[in-house]
Amino acid sequence: MEESKQKPLEKKIITALRTVFDPEIPVNVYDLGLIYEINIDDSSNVQIVMTLTNPNCPVADQLIVDVRDIVKTVGGVDKVEVKLVFEPVWTKDNMSDAALLDLGLL
């Protein structure tokens, strides 16, 4: 997708992702640093590359569905694929300053 169209759509996707919370940590998945990539192609298909705080996360399946479903609601998005990866491994260094503040870690 041409960059001038991609950036506004990416911003809308990020706003939507900030409404999805990890049920075990009271921080949204974007500020928690679980979203590694947001890829948008020329047809407005979106691929989200994400990880989990723990590979054995008991709510992993639901979190992936929640991410996919919320991104589908963003105007201008056609198809959504969520790709789960475990490399690189998630650490608290992935968290935004806002998330660190919310958890009292900053």
Strand content: 15-25%
The percent of residues in helical segments reads: 25-40%
Stretches where pLDDT falls below 50 for ≥5 residues?
none
Order of helices and strands: HEEHEH
Number of helices: 3
Count of β-strands: 3
CATH class: Alpha Beta
CATH topology term: GMP Synthetase, Chain A, domain 3
- Give the N-terminus to C-terminus distance in angstroms: 37 Å
Outline: globular
Structural class: alpha+beta
Number of domains: 1
Write out the strand line-up for the largest beta sheet, numbering strands in chain order: 1-2-3
Largest sheet: 3 strands, mixed
User: Rg to the nearest angstrom?
Assistant: 14 Å
Question: Which whole number gives the mean pLDDT?
Answer: 91
Describe the secondary structure blueprint for this structure.
Blueprint (H helix, E strand, L loop, with lengths): L2 H15 L17 E6 L5 E5 L9 H13 L7 E5 L12 H6 L4
Parallel strand pairs: 2-3
Antiparallel strand pairs: 1-2
What can you tell me about this protein's structure?
The chain has one domain: GMP Synthetase, Chain A, domain 3, CATH 3.30.300.130. A three-stranded mixed sheet has the order 1-2-3, with helices on one face. With 106 residues, the protein is of the alpha+beta class. Helix content is 32%, strand content 15%. The radius of gyration is 14 Å and the shape is globular. The chain is built from three helices and three strands. It has helices spanning 3-17, 60-72, 97-102; strands at 35-40, 46-50, 80-84.
Quick tags:
single chain; 32% helix; 3 helices; alpha+beta; GMP Synthetase, Chain A, domain 3; 106 residues
